[in-house]
Amino acid sequence: MIEQTNLVISKWNYTQPVNPFEDGEQPTGTINLEVMKKRAPTKKGIACRFSCKFIFEEKVILEYEAADSYVIDLEDIIDINELQTMVGNSYNKFKEKFDFRKLGTVLQNQAMVPFNEKMYDLFPILALVNET
């Protein structure tokens, strides 16, 4: 059985930019993913931590970081499709929190950088999760 934990926001550092956005100006956004292996005597799992930054006029407007975990029974074997779903679900939770918290900031009309799972090689993570 696979259980997903709640998303925990570890960083939300927002700084109002000095100058407002002009027509056509957009902040630059980046997104990163870190996956960590977890292990306990009766369970295994991974933690997915996403982070993003928005930069405007060479100054950081927002640094946002959050993570959640998946707890998996030791005997369960995860395949690549399940792992992709797990990472995708974590990203969706991350994005959902951003979409809510960005309201009332200059980023309220900004979209988060889409997550492209093809940028990440998930097979080493898959091997870590399934090793006994």
Description of the structure:
The structure is a single chain. The chain is α+β, with helices and mostly antiparallel strands and 132 residues long. The protein has one domain: Bacterial Protein-export protein SecB (Roll), CATH 3.10.420. It is built from two helices and five strands. Strands 1, 2, 3, 4 and 5 form a five-stranded antiparallel beta sheet that branches. A hairpin with a 2-residue loop joins strand 4 and strand 5. The longest helix is centred in the C-terminal third of the chain and has 22 residues. It is elongated, with a radius of gyration of 17 Å. The protein starts with a strand and ends with a helix. The mean pLDDT is 90.
The Rg value, from CA coordinates, equals: 17 Å
Question: How does the overall form come out from the CA principal axes?
Answer: elongated
Reported for the largest beta sheet, the result is: 5 strands, antiparallel
What is the SS-derived class?
Answer: alpha+beta
Summarize the structure.
This protein has 132 residues and is α+β, with helices and mostly antiparallel strands.
What is the strand and helix layout of this fold?
Layout: E1 2-4, E2 8-14, E3 28-39, E4 43-56, E5 59-73, H1 80-101, H2 123-130
Antiparallel strand pairs: 1-5, 2-5, 3-4, 4-5
Defining traits:
2 helices, alpha+beta, 5 strands, Bacterial Protein-export protein SecB, five-stranded antiparallel beta sheet, 132 residues
